[in-house]
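Troubleshooting log. The previous run stalled partway through. Resubmitting the same two chains, unchanged.
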Amino acid sequence: MVGLRRLLLATIAILAMAASARADDFHDLIDRLGAESFDAKVQAVDALGELGDGRAVPALKALSDGLLYRTADGHVVVVEPAGDTYRLFAPVDHGGLGEAKSGAVDKVRVNNRLRGSITGALSRLTMVSASRDDRLNAARDALKHLSADSAPALERALEGEKDPEVRQALTVALSAARLTTGTNEQRIAAISVLAQSTDSEVRSLLGRLANSGDLDPGVRKALEAARRGLEQRLMWIGFAENLFQGLSLGSVLLLAAIGLAITFGVMGVINMAHGEMLMLGAYTTFVVQEVFRAFLPPSWIDSYLIVSAPAAFLVTGAVGIVLERSVIRFLYKRPLETMLATWGVSLILQQAVRVVFGSPNKEVSNPSWMTGGFTWLGGATITWNRLVILGFCAVVMLCLAVLLRKTSFGLHMRAVTQNRDMAAVMGIPTARIDALTFGLGSGIAGIGGVALSQIGNVSPNLGTIYIVDSFLVVVFGGVGNLMGTLVGALSLGVVNKLLEPVAGAVLGKVAVLLAIILFIQKRPRGLFALKGRAAES
Amino acid sequence: MSAAPGFLDRRGWIWFLAIGVVLIVVVPLLNALPASGAAVRLPDYLIPLFGKYACYAILALSLDLIWGYAGILSLGHGAFFALGGYAMGMYLMRQIGTRGVYANAVLPDFMVFLNWKALPWYWYGFDHFAFAALMVVLVPGVFAFVFGWFAFRSRITGVYFSIITQALTYALLLAFFRNDMGFGGNNGLTDFKDILGFDVHEQSTRRALYITSVIAMGGVFLVCRAIVASKLGRVMLALRDSEARVRFLGYSAERAKLFGFTVSAVLAGIAGALYVPQVGIINPSEFSPANSIEIAIWVAVGGRGTLGGALVGAVAVNLAKSWLTGEVPEAWLFVLGGLFILVTLVFPHGLVGLAQQLKTMRRLLPAVGARKLAE
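Second attempt completed without errors. Output:
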């Protein structure tokens, strides 16, 4: 019974094909997708790919998704299942063709060989698609899935292409295709094109070629030169990328450590709860984001960061002042005990946040103007969020420098740092300066927390991740001056990130720690030590 | 300092021996003799728990020796504890032999799992108890000596020293997390079978380990007492109060500190070695900075610079921890954090000093009252 129906259908299909043999080639080929034998279908798919008419894309996609069906009169349709029946659509313009019982249409079967042809045809068709991004992706895909016969399609696509970036990608893919199939001259020419590329795909391709036995000596020579150049360029790009990552890490460390350095400079105490100020700043950001989501129109959400930075500064600054007034001021002259007491504060703050917000990570999303990134130097990825943080950190540092140099508060602060007793004698309210300094340091850490929330998850133990590094920045850079902390934080961040690819993340960190322990042998008071009377205490 | 600490006086010895007899004789007998289920019987799980407290007490003593007496606050003392623990753990690991999951006679399970072919050189010798015991003392000792030599020579003191020791234990934490360090990575060393031929899971072995820990605690207490009472101990005490003056008097501050720091690290290592067979695991979390700073709070709660206070503090805080983490787990960190603040702000002399504080207050109060009357 089934066999009989198939036979019948096949006959009809052949008749139909014969009937419309003179109709325009395109529609004919589309209908031939419903042919009975796989060979015929493959031929039709390949022919459609060769034809280069983008209108074939929906039909091909439907075919590979198993949604292309054959009607009794020999046409193919795209179906959309709706209960027992199918809704039918024309394969080319997607016009509705009514409904049909599921038995009335026949599924066009696909096998792996056919699927391979479909992928090839689709990529060729998207290479000439109207959308520039589609074409670019197709050109990059072509590089990844090279096949012996992709060269002609690439050539054709290149002829019609106007966009320079797509042209570039196509040229690379074409050269890569010729690399495996072309004559020796073509190969050398292809290698010289590929040598300009910075794609890691190209690197592995050239590597594979170099390992594949018999090569013409001329080709091999060109190949080796190209590989050397490529390696070097990739190395530089990797270096630039790590440098950027390092600077970005350093800027976060800077925001975290600067408050620590200032308070240590002014008051001689180490605040072990400083990391929790970062954490509180990050949670403030989270709360502001949630408030924006809940109460303000959705179009405002992108500006929540503008509110959360000052909010975090105020919240953590207030916490800092309360901490100073309630605990730390009783412990001056007892720095070791201050460490313990502030550690206790950090435990309480962490646990309090855990109780209020729960232990799982909170997600703070980047505003749209901070998402994504761009490539630089032809391969190094620069993400916007890290770049913005870098700039933000620079602005904060600038403000802080102005505050310290140009305001009377800054003047008083520096005076207390240098000689507390003398400053008190001159009428500077040292207790007030202490509290304000503590608030300022904590507030900056809170702003650092805003920055941290943009590059990672927000969790109650966020602060503990950065606190040891911040201490090291202070030890390395010396206390009580911006320059030392700036140099300390940036160099620590950069060295950390540059060591990572060489030694691995953990060993790199261990190496940095050991280096700092050795460094303070030479300069126990840090890179930029206070000189003169202030140094003796 | 007028009241220079002497070695134990008669009353001290009586207390020492009385507590010793209770802990070494009475407690194990209460666990061993009464039938299980009897009201007077000490439940089995308490023996290793008490043993653990004894190890913590040794650790607290070791920190008190340098913090309470020499004024050096090490925030990385957990590292020495863990190093001693790892040395013991390596011995216990080798004792497993073919009883591991992969039944490899030489390689511990995690090495087989990582597809290692041979034992790394630094694992050689750990199948002998004597060698492992030597390493328990040597590794933390040498490590502390080298580190202390660098640190004290360049006069790193106060908060700087604390931060650097914290960074040190943090670095070790990161390093021991790595699988290719050859110490079991994240999971550490565990699944121990026996120690010196005795099954670690047997109650009699646990009792023996507990008794050993208590004896060690007493021994360490006497050693610390002897150091503190010696001339060197007085130099250490003077260093705490005014380092510059000690230098001008012609004493070598570096040597006294280095001695104290190294001895202290060795004692911490011993505590770690006794701790591991009783809890059955050693992993990198022992290196975490939070653990090390907690030791300081035991000492501070008990009262630093008293040795006895370190013992009291370690046991008291850990009892509270065991109880609270069972009853109200969320509250424990609040309590611990509160302890840190309270003890530094209000009770700088800790529990031991509290009695003294109250005594002086009682002595002073009538005097105040009498003066008021006279007016």
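Takeaways: Chain A has three domains: 2-113, 145-215, 238-465. Residues 2-113 of chain A form one domain.
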